[in-house]
């Protein structure tokens, strides 16, 4: 399901970025098949080889296994099923102000269009693509500020300065650079896992092997609920 959603999202972004549909389909089909097969194989290997991988109460305190995807779908079922959106994003919840973002998303392209009409000589205004810009915000809760700072820095250097002043280099190597950065992250993730993260067998103790560092994440957010060790709203 996640791969299918990613497939469609990438198709949408490809449409906004004027990438030919046939090229997008071939690349996305091959990438989705490869990623889905590898993800399923790794998940099956982890679930069958590590005891109590998704049971935090049965794991040792310094265990790196947290099953975030498992909790993600569980939390989604609780929010939209058991609790209901009214107690979270409605009048009985703590986050009703988030509903205003739907209005902001609808009016955003209108604002860009008005700016283009008022300042027709500004060539940078038509380059503002809110679906692309706001699409990255959707994954911001799962990312850290470091991820976005690095993205802004690298993107500005290579897609603005290099694109403007070294156009031939950009045309020949920028796509390769993007693939190399993605592959580097994947390789480093595997390297760090086997060297300093795998059940901490290396004997190293650092912040990456000492839990999630957010003890209050398990605290309730409803007003008036009292739990030992948690603040009361």
UniProtKB/TrEMBL annotation:
A Gene Ontology cellular component where this protein is annotated is:
membrane
Q: Which residues cross the membrane?
A: 25-47, 97-116, 123-140, 146-163, 175-196
Q: What is the protein's membrane topology class?
A: Multi-pass membrane protein
Sorted keywords for this record are: Membrane, Peptide transport, Protein transport, Transmembrane, Transmembrane helix, Transport
Transmembrane as UniProt keyword = yes
GO molecular function per UniProt: oligopeptide transmembrane transporter activity
For this entry, list what GO says about its biological process.
Answer: protein transport
Q: What is this protein called?
A: Oligopeptide transporter
- Record family assignment: Belongs to the oligopeptide OPT transporter (TC 2.A.67.1) family.
Q: Where is this protein chiefly located?
A: membrane
Which species is the source of this protein? Liquidambar formosana (Formosan gum)
Q: Where in the cell is it found?
A: Membrane
Per its UniProt record, what Pfam families does this chain match? Answer: OPT
Is Kinase set as a keyword in this record? no
């Amino acid at each position: 399901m996640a791969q299918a959603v990613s497939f469609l999202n990438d198709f949408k972004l490809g449409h906004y970025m004027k990438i030919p549909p046939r090229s997008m389909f071939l690349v996305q089909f091959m990438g989705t098949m490869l990623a889905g097969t590898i993800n399923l194989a790794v998940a099956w290997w982890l679930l069958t080889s590590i005891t109590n991988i998704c049971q935090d109460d049965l794991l040792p305190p310094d265990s790196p296994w947290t099953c975030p995807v498992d909790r993600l779908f569980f939390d989604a079922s609780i929010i939209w099923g058991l609790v209901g959106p009214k107690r979270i994003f409605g009048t009985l919840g703590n986050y009703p102000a988030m509903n205003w973002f739907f209005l902001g998303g609808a009016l955003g392209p209108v604002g860009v269009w008005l700016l283009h009409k008022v300042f027709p000589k500004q060539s940078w205004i038509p380059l503002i693509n809110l679906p692309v810009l706001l699409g990255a915000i959707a994954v911001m809760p799962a990312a850290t500020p470091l991820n976005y700072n690095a993205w802004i820095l690298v993107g500005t250097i290579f897609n603005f300065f290099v694109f403007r002043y070294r156009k031939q280099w950009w045309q020949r190597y920028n796509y390769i650079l993007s693939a190399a950065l993605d592959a580097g992250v994947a390789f480093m993730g595997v390297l760090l896992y086997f060297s300093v993260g795998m059940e901490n067998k290396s004997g190293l103790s650092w912040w990456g092997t000492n839990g999630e560092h957010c003890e209050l994440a398990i605290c309730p957010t409803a007003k008036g609920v009292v739990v030992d060790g948690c603040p009361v709203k």
